[in-house]
Structures are given as C-alpha cells and as structure tokens.
Here is the input.
Amino acid sequence: MCHQSLWARPILNPSNQPSGQPAPVQFGFQSMKAKGPDQAAFEQFKSQRYAEILSHEQAHQSAAGSLGGGIHIDFDSNGVAVGGHVPIQIPPLDSKNPEASYKSYCQVRNAALAPGDPSGQDCAVASKAQALMGQAQVLMARKKQKSQKETEVTS
Ligand SMILES: [Zn+2]
Here is the structure.
C-alpha cells in the first residue's frame, strides 16, 4: 500500500482489472494432468496474473512517456507471472532549467503512482521524485527572486 496518500492519485486506472478474486488454485501440481480441470484453472490463473501485472506495468509505461523503457515481466518456474518492471529515467537536477527538471520529476512521480495498486518500490520512486520536485522548486523560487531583483534594478 502507498503511504503517501496525500498526493497518491493514480492518473490512470486500468479498467481491465480483473474483478473479484482469482480462482483459488492449489499448488503442488506434480501430477498435473494434461487437460484436467486443475490444468484449466491453472491456465486461467496464469493468464489472469499475467494480465494483472501487464496492466500495472502498462500504466507505469504510458504515464512515464519518453522517460520510461520497455516492460519486463518475470515468471516463476511454472510460467506464472510474479512481477514486472518498467525502467524509468530520473534526470539530474538542472540548475539552469529547474522548470524542466520539475516537470520530469512530476512525470516520474505520476508514472510511479499510475497503477491503481502501487507497490512499495513504486512508492519509494514516487517519494524520491517528490523530494527532487521540492529541490527543483527551491531553485525555481531562487531564479524568480533573482529575476525580480533584476527587474527592479532595470525599471
Ligand atoms: Zn509498479
């Protein structure tokens, strides 16, 4: 769960989230029958897990825009999707153009929180981006003060 709920507003809520719980599945399929009902339930569970993880990662990716990379999904030895990730670039704070940096960090934060179910890692990235947004804002304020002073001098 995300603790940063003050600003944890997912901007994308995938509507294709499976409703309800996944079908209960017994693990320990050592004597799996080729087309038994267990196999069918397992296949259903497998594709549900995959769709869940994919839609989570797609939410990250589409919100990340040009800062995001490709979706990677991890599977366990049974071929069940267990997790995924999308790499995201966090550009260094540009003191000459803090506005652009601020925009990038905002995008990173939104991308981290884009899925309806942000993970702990997602929240960590979001709070890192939030902290950087604060730093960029400080630079933006300084820049503004400076330009105001310059205006006073010249006017
Ligand atoms: Zn995530």
Notes: The longest strand covers residues 81-85.
